[in-house]
Records
---
Amino acid sequence: MSGAALGLEIVFVFFLALFLLHRYGDFKKQHRLVIIATLLAWYLCFLIVFILPLDVSTTIYNRCKLAVNSSPAESNGSYVTLAPSKQKCFKPWSYIPNGIMPIFWRVVYWTSQFLTWILLPFMQSYARSGGFSITGKIKTALIENAIYYGTYLLIFGAFLIYVAVNPNFNLQWNQLQTIGIAAANTWGLFLLVLLLGYGLVEIPRSHWNGAKRGYLLMKTYFKAAKLMTEKADAEENLEDIMEEVRKVSESIKYNHPLRKCVDTILKKCPTEYQERMGRNMDDYEDFDERQNSYPSEKSLVKLHKQVIYSVQRHRRTQVQWQILLEQAFYLEDVAKNETSATRQFVHTFRSQEPENKLVQYFYTPTVEWYWECLLRPWFYRVLAVVLATFSVIVVWSECTFFSTKPVLSLFAVFIQLAEKTYNYIYIEMACFLTIFFLSICVYSTVFRIRVFNYYYLASHHQTDAYSLLFSGMLFCRLTPPLCLNFLGLTHMDATISHKNTQPTAYTSIMGSMRVLSFIADGFYIYYPMLVVILCIATYFSLGTRCLNLLGFQQFMGDSEMTSDLIDEGKELIKREKRKRQRQEEGENRRREWKERYGNRDDSTRNRVVHTDQKESSFSETSISRPLSKYTRSNGRTERDRIELLQDAEPLDFNADSINDDPLELDSGR
């Protein structure tokens, strides 16, 4: 099994990242480079989280071997003896051979840092650029990132000059590398504690509220009112942008040098707008620079950027509105079925997507009723209690992990108890659950954050390229300090435990933080205690109340504005529900009519066609040759006759004279 666990987790994490990216991104419409870069960033961050428990168990085994192989006299050397010299060490099932983990961590860490600080910011600007060529987009991205990169180069250059001038510093390359890593981790830890303080409270509370049917339904009504406002705003914005595109398309004709740019913009517009503009265009007119003023290429680039943004926003709001409607209808069905005497779940509307036959076989209406109306609320309550317990343990450990005598961090106590018996499965499970819970608290907050309309991770393939790349940047910056914080909570980091023991392979690539003692002994120790204040602020919803005072509508039960939006959303859902019911009733009537009279209509239609053919053949043979000049040609089809009848104009009875001869009337017309 040597190295097999590492290989299995590498494959599993890849498919996990691919699944999440498929849920939020759109593989068909978005650029391949955006998909690849985001997938790589997510994959590396998830990989660090899943592989770190294997590094911990391997390190504990290596410490045991060193303790067994070293004599008591040698225990005062490089490593401290952790076990008696005659104790036998058991190799873990997931043991990774020496030399693999340092190389693995070095490749993963530096690749993620290259992505988050260099490649992904550049690709963000490239994706948002409205240029019409690769060269133009690259130029725009370089200009936008000049200040971003220049700031870092200025700070780093000033630091190098200070080190070179000051004789007290004699830094080598390894120490400079450690300082750079410490600076990146400090920035990440600053953001990590903010996100962690929110997630530790909001995740258990959201699951507890998930057991309240009335709460979920009221919140869905509130979301419907807000989303309808956003949807109307997106439609209005799209109409304004399309009007500008129409004016530009009419002014720039087919032989204008910028016509290719206009065609590129038109391809990004929705289909109905393309058809409308295509009907109103007249490309047979030549352009004249002396008579008309034409937009510049720079203004077309700006318009192209606006078209991409407005179309993406409009499509996202349309999809989210349909998803929210389905959620509201389902919650209303749950509220109705709770008082059902038959104990069978009845849906108001049929599912628009075909369900799996296997799911239909096991998930019957009776099973669905017991799960939705009886078991699910209790399951969510139990899960919320478990998550709240984990949150309390995390908060306690964050405030006490610096204490080594006695050991107050509960995670460190659990790991040290398992280390005495060398129960590697328990060690790996405890480490995995701990770091997985921390990751869920942090990453779920990243998925919930919405910075106006610039950054927003929307499911069902509705996330734009800019938001995907920005999420990759955040993950790459948050994951390294998250792992260091986990190693500190479990006292696997020598900087925290103050023991001269063998470090983990992950800690070894970070270097010794003693180069910057004020960070290692100050910021890393005391800043995580701020999570207590953030948890208290999240529990009392101070951030939500502040946003509500600033004019951003937030769901608050004691707010008059929230009540008004709930009533508005409820009326919107009722209107959409009536519309859906009318559509289904119409479809049912058409289906019943077709099933009842479909065969009869077909047989009647066949008899009528057969009779017409007989009459037409009889009339053609009975008409004399002299009258053939007054009749139509026999080669005319039935479609031509119908079209002539449809094109015939009604008689004008107000005219001075009426011509009774239809042939003269037709010739005159």
---
Amino acid sequence: SCVGLRNLLQGLSFSVKYYSKHNHLQTICLYSKTQQKKCHILDCSGSTCTHKTLPTGSILPWRLFSCKEGTKIPSKRKQNTSIITSELLYKNLLKSEQENWNDISARYKAMTERIKEKLEELHNKYTFNSVSPRIRFGENVYFEENGCIFLSKADDVDEGNVDVLFSTKDLGFSDAFIQRIRISPDQRYMAISLKSENSEEATCVIMKLDHSPVIEKVIPSVFSFEWATNDVLYYTSQKNLKCQNVFMTTFTDQKHTKLVYTEQDARFFVDIYCTKDRRFLTINSNSKTTSEVWLIDCRHPFKLPALVQARTKGVIYHIEHRNDELYILTTYGELAEYKLMKAPVASSGMENWQLVYALEKKTKLVDLEMFSDHCVMFLKNAGHLYLNVISFVSHLVQSIELPTWACEFELESHPEHTTSTCYFQLTSPVHPPKCFAYSFKENNLIEQAVQEVPIITNCHTTRLLAKSKDETLVPITVFHSMNSKELHRKPLLVHVYGAYGIDLNMSFKEEKLMLIEEGWILAYCHVRGGGELGLSWHKDGCQYNKLKGLHDLKACIMLLHQLGFSQPKYTALAAASAGGVLAGALCNTDPELIRAMVLQAPFVDVLNTMMKTHLPLTIEEQEEWGNPLADEKCMKYIKSYCPYQNIKPQCYPSVFITAYENDQRIPLTGVLRYVQKLRKAALDHASRIRKKGNWIPSIILDIQANGSHCDSSWEDSLNE
């Protein structure tokens, strides 16, 4: 939650350097057939813990990438020979691909040096004066830069009068980056999560902030954590991409750590959140369709957590607190989009929920911030961003339109609860973040002039609607230089994702601006399965609706060409992770629409992955893709669009794939199989059709030794 959604996928890269405190808002409502199980609450109010069986709890923060294939460990006795053989084949194949990549990449040395120089120039131009996320505690300000955490007085922060509290390099964590920071209420302790680029799991370091800060404790494999009091910390542990246990650890004279909560349903993922007024910690357990929340009273941190509302199939809810009332963001009710409701803390059951505000249909709730007297909703509708400001005093709702060029919000990491101003930034793939503020007192939007960021004035933004196969209108956002002429001759880069209710990442990236300056057209296709038009947009593109996303993508590309934005021989398609499903499917069904495809850590073998329930995320993701093991109809449906299953001899576009050796979500074996099968199909087609000018596509695989599922530093992203 350190940087809100600013770095949701920075560099995409998908640079998830900071945990997004509100990524759990992107879960979706869908019917689930899985039987509820039981969870265990441990009463830690006394000197010992006692188990109590209760209805399961559940809240899952949104993961940005799909679960992918791993390797099942066979029996040692029966399969030793096959293990050795397959490992040897794997190593030989890996070595062959690396040699092939070294040979191919050498041909592009001059081009890559030119591109690298240009990107560094743009990076320095647009980020040299960017402000790091700051945490304010009264007169003190905490912030992170270059692997160090600093403390300054609010009046001195821009004068350079700072104290260094923590340095990854000096304390032996040089290979890690700072992911999350939490300061205890009395500012005596600071908890930090550190994550390396080669691992999904983070380490939590607790510092005692005396005159000379020292490490008090190190906790491995931590996902989220919050201070309940000055010396009581709650945290969740992570193992094999799952997060199902909540612990409490104390820093009093009698230090101890206790298990507080266990989630036993494999579909659910647990995290910890602190309400803005610091009254409650919430234990949130979410599947992709259902939520459950337990409250920990920060005034009594050793008491048993209290259930807000038992999980109800298809109902997602999240909790904030104000004046002894719970404010509940939920999908409960007739229209399965988000609504803001409220209920007394003492009687928080669903029967007592009262409507405060309901979103309009096809409106995406990007984020929500609670202040002492106001609530700010950050919204998206048909590609346009706006704010809804709800006053808890006057009970009025004010809607604020934002500049038309804006495509993404970047929120303040820790806004002060009692402030009279809400600060945020607006950005787009080709516009660097620009600071804005909304004044509750003046009821107006203020454009900040603090940062002298050069304004991009020569880029034109166009919003289109493509008619899909079933007549549904699909939004497209297009960027191109105003100086470009004969757009039908310009190269076009199309972006797609379309899964998990997650929007296409449209934050600023230097490489996108560079492409615009070099005459490219950029198009972002907001197909079904994503979240751009609210929860229903995702529901209309998952499970048995996956083909709708493919039809949407085809319609978008065809419309772009019909309107004169490039043509097939100058068109490339880019996708990452689960976006590889639709991109790879289009490559099979309509290869003539594109000349090249660029995939990053792509999910290309849906069927085999979803057939293997021993993989860490397969059961959880049945709500997105279906369960082919239990349903033959589902198996046939997945097989009908799965990229790997539908490769056939035909004229394919050229393909460039980046994969990661340490990727736990998409292990290399599946990507290697896809590449081998695709190459064979392309060569089979070329050998059958021997004619002059017959084109054989380049199918290139770049295997990165560092990085983990699109998670990379600026330096690695630059090299890539």
---
Amino acid sequence: SGASLRYSTGTGGEGSEGEGAGPGSSDSGGSGFSLAASALPERRRPGGGRPRYEVVRELGAEEVRWFYREDRKTWKPFIGYDSLRIELAFRALGSAGGGSGEPAAVEPVCVRSGLYEVDVASAESYPVYWNQTEKIPVMRGQWFIDGTWQPLEEEESNLIEQEHLNRFKGQQLQESFDMEISKPVDGKEAIHSLKLSRNHVDWHSVDEVYLYSDATTSKIARTVTQKLGFSKASSSGTRLHRGYVEEATLEDKPPQTSHIVFVVHGIGQKMDQGRIIKNTAMMRDTARKVEEKYFSNLATHVEFLPVEWRSKLTLDGDTVDSITPDKVRGLRDMLNSSAMDIMYYTSPLYRDELVKGLQQELNRLYSLFCSRNPEFEEKGGKVSIVSHSLGCVITYDIMTGWNPVRLYEQLLQKEEEELEESWMSYEERRLLEELYITKQRLREIEERLHELKASTISKPPVLKFKVENFFCMGSPLAVFLALRGIRPGSSGSQDHILPRTICNRLLNIFHPTDPVAYRLEPLILKHYSNISPVQIHWYNTANPLPYEHMKPSFLNPSKEATSAPEPESASAAPSPTTSPVMVRRHYGESITNIGKASILGAASIGKGLGGMLFSRFGRSSATPQTMEAGKDGPEGDDKKATTVGTPPLPHSSSGFLEPTVELEHRIDFELREGLVESRYWSAVTSHTAYWSSLDIALFLLTFMYKQDQEETDKSNLDTL
């Protein structure tokens, strides 16, 4: 929620939790802590501490804190802005429904950056933008466990609060809430007690309250420790605090959303429904950590919304299930729920249903977000899409409007051209001309009809928003484009595969061992097939070089020098640019290739340890040609060093055409391999490893915050 539990303990603060309490740790209230009386955290209050000798009164709305619990984990506090508004709605519900006896209708409270709503009457929270079967319980916290500041269960908390007010209301507090150390309760007798179902509460003074478990083990432990001379409170009591450690204020609110990111899933969603919601939550959480560390100076933030498009589609119903044999049923069902999506997409019958399903869901989410955040469009809010696996292909087709019918028309046109060139009789030629004229007439009529329709009904755009960045993760898009006939061009523009008018920036992210991922850059310029993708910076890299300043480098520099037929051509620059080359260090080879010997057998051992350590598995091998290149020794190195800055020749040493043309922007970005990572194991796991990566979270935010960061830096310079 973004709320932080900020408190400072006095002497014995943490040491008194469980450790110094001996065997009598309490098991009441879900706390599991035994706390000494000397640990009273300082209560943080924006307007300063309470005045001394304040009288006991009912808790203010700012002192109560609301909590939520996801996946049956611990209770998490709402931030002050959310908690205060929930509490005000709760009090409005109580006052409105008090007279009539019927619960009054109270508007749901929007919380957690607008992603969830809280129904105060049912004490539940639910997501706004996606469906979730499990409701998230919320709880009103009044009394809290010392140290953890976890709330007592609401039923017990209400009973304790009621008893506290009945007994002490109007009495003056003898201690200030801002005093770090309170007087020890050793030797003090309880002035008041309350029996609960499994516990009991002792008041030693107005603001010194302890909770004790009535379980048999706790009673025995208490008896033993008291006989040893320890007081009841210090041996097995859990100290309670009335009111939360931090007051709730409306100023403690989340930053405004300036950029929304739609996260689109790939195959397998039918097999594991709700997986994209969990994956998006992981990506959102890692992005929050990165935002706090690197972008905390910006007043806006990026919000991630899951796009679950698969579950609403009927497709063939259960036809495929009915024709599936029963043997190895589990494996077959898994394939039907995952790989079958690819077959559906290549089917002319179901492809449109998949495209329409994703398109409608994207537009629905955008319209819903804008209706709840009307200032988003007014202030120039931006939209990016992060797609995974097959989702990249469907998203691309929606943005570009690509349809297999176009491909079919192109094939027909090609056949017509081939027919015209072939020999045919007079009668055949006459009939062909008639067919050609009829088709042309049909096209003209269709165009006129479309014009008439367009004049009466303006066709809405496919997507209701302009895409700022399109991030592909583990994407097979390049293969689909290659099979559709897209070939490298002579221009280094992204427009060759995705026009900038549709999407400002295309970025292709992949793990080097992801078997589903392919590169896009060689589809734009052919010589980029031998230029390494840009390495994504590690999350904790200090002062990383900006991506736009990183120079391209060859995948196999040694290969470049040896593939030239003549010695003169070796003097050509080993780079696609005239700038010096940064030789790429093959990541992970020194360790992962040691395992290669055991797999490839004695033959690879015979090549020597050097071959194992310096050849990249799966990309290059120690061929005789490359081994000869190693014989050049220092002379060859000197020759290379003297020619780095020389202008390139019309043909580079790789055999490609003159590579002076560069890409306007790099598109392929590769995650770095771990040094001890097994490539065989990572080939299995890498396709689903993108969601929780801090490296990817930083990469995404770097591009999405780029303009905001530049504007902030500019304004800072102007101020200076």
---
Amino acid sequence: PAGPRAAMRLAALLAALRPVLPLVLGLSLGCSLSLLRASWSQSGGEDQCPGAAGRPGPLAGGAHLEAADARLGPGHEDFRPRIVPYYRDPNKPYKKVLRTRYIQTELGFHERLFVAVLTSKATLNTLAVAVNKTVAHHFPRLLYFTGLRSAKVPHGMVLVAHGDERPIWLMYETMHYIHQHFGSDYDWFYIMQDDTYAQAEQVKALVTHLSINQDVYLGRAEEFIGGDEQARYCHGGFGYLISRSLLLKLHPHLDSCRNEILSVRPDEWLGRCIIDFLGITCVSELQGQHYHTYELAKNTEPEKEEEEEFQAALAVHPVSDMTLMYRLHKRFSRIQLDRAYQEIQDLQMQIRNLTSLTPAGEAGLTWPVGINAPFLPKSRFEVISWDYFTEQHLFSCPDGSPKCELSGASKADVSEIIESALEQLNSRYQPLLRFSKRQLLNGYRRFDPTRGMEYTLDLLLEAVTQKGHSHVLAKRVSLVRPLSKVEIIPMPYVTEATRVQLVLPLTVQDLDFVANFLDMFAMNTLDTHDNALLTLLFIYHPYDAQRVSQVDVFAGVKAMVGELEKRYAEVKIPWISVKTEVPSQVKLMDIVSKKHPVDTLFFLASVWTEINMEFLNRCRMNTISNWQVFFPVHFQEFNPALAYRGEQTASSSTDFLRDGHFDRHSFAEACFYNSDYMTARTKLAADILDRDEVLESMEVFDVFLHYSGLHLFRAVEPGLVQKYALRSCNPRLSEELYHRCVLSNLEGLASRSHLAMALFEQEQANST
């Protein structure tokens, strides 16, 4: 019985271990293979590989590998990451690490291309201006260098005057200036003369295909007169490209070159300097990239030039006058445009050929080919509406009126799209038919964010055959103006550390809301130690101002301010008293502006505004001195009596913007710098002279809109929420301001559905 009992115990043990048996076997197999691999590695370290006689074998620590890498030279380092441990000496005082302003500075990134144009007294106001008008805006940074003293700079140009017109001295000073001011900021430096036409886009494309790790001296290579046959210099008339590494190596030798090298031509002098001290000669081809040039003959007609050498040229020289420069620019712009159209057609053909291989087949081919498909709304609230227009009127006006005259940019847009439609029709049907426009019957357009502006035109056309027979017909055409390449607009640097000066105008009608404003200001700025100050502007009616010694209508507000100053000892809230019947926003701002420094960042608030840190930071970031002002569109909550009708209000944080609307009629809130306001206000004063009554019909927004060249940033601001309150509209203001105030009150009552429900309930109650 002992034998069967032991067998039963063994079977029970195996049954219990069966679930973990694969794990045990896997661990055993893994340990065995690891030990076997270790023994192979140790035995392999004792023998050398066949054919590697004399080379030491790799050791476990990698010492021989490092030695082999060292023998390969500095250009073949092993770029393996290393963790550098942080260590701070406890005996030294701690210093705060100062971060750079931009991340590209901290990472050591450089801008791509810097362009220097050499000009002279005779050509500064002619050829240099032509260069500035044709290609300067295509380059990221372009400066003009001249030897004139105190030269008058043409509009829109940045000129560096060295004060010596000798050509060699001008070249020496230019290279020294470029190294000193831009040597650490750019990877490539392109030097050209003002009698050179350079294709900016081609030059920029060239530097993107070249390695920045090499010393590059690229241009049209020319032989020295009576010099070495192997040495070449880059002809200055056709421009030349110098890499940053070459400029850094050349700079220490510039003084020696100036004293030792004699030459008449500045480009020869620079080429000899580079060859003698760096041993680098000019080349016209590098890393598979060719620097194509074209030398213009006398009396050349750019419009008739069809040579391949001309069309492929990056630089053309010599350009004798401004007119020729403009004609060259027009010709090369047409060449680039034709190339772009041909490339688009080739890509569209490839897309058509490949569409049949896709799962959707030819049904998935969109129109126009290569453009995103139209936006498909998922609900009726996402439907993009069409705007109807004719050649004279637009039936979707910015001010909300049903019909307005077609003018300005909209009129130019409609005219251009009709001309484009006729051009496309004639190019498709000629020479069989030739179309001319009789009338635009109907026009529709809408902006699709996924593809661009879409148009549908019903045209009344006259079609003429080759035999001269004509026929009038109506035809519908569809066109798309696609979104072009997205550009990143450079903006000046701003921080969130700027102090914000809040300005709060108060009238007698606003007294019921001041307490809530001050409570929110204290909670969101004073308690959080935000860098924000407050100035109150008490607007007295002349009748109240006469009785201020007996009854001060703002006494309660002043008492609340005193309590705040006692609670926060370091805070001072000043106030300014003004007597007026018409509280013009501009006149009030004039008073405040004179009492603050020019670099003050103002936030013009209203008593219903609930101040919070999120909005103040956006006010700081969206307002840029001498560049941009910010006019936020606050969110206005609806009247709770109509929106909820006795029900509990929405308290969820995700629904706080549900029952209200963004009040686009209100311009009461604004963020701007005092210096920008003073500049615009000076222009306004010169325009209106002594007619101060004009100021009553204006707001601060109008001052910046009409009398400043700044960007006006008008955007919805979800961080600026106002509770419902019926605003008092002053009839003494202008008709437009009073009308906007009334509209703001009416649209702030409730939504259409809320108003409809309220009317329905009222009718039900009246009927019963």
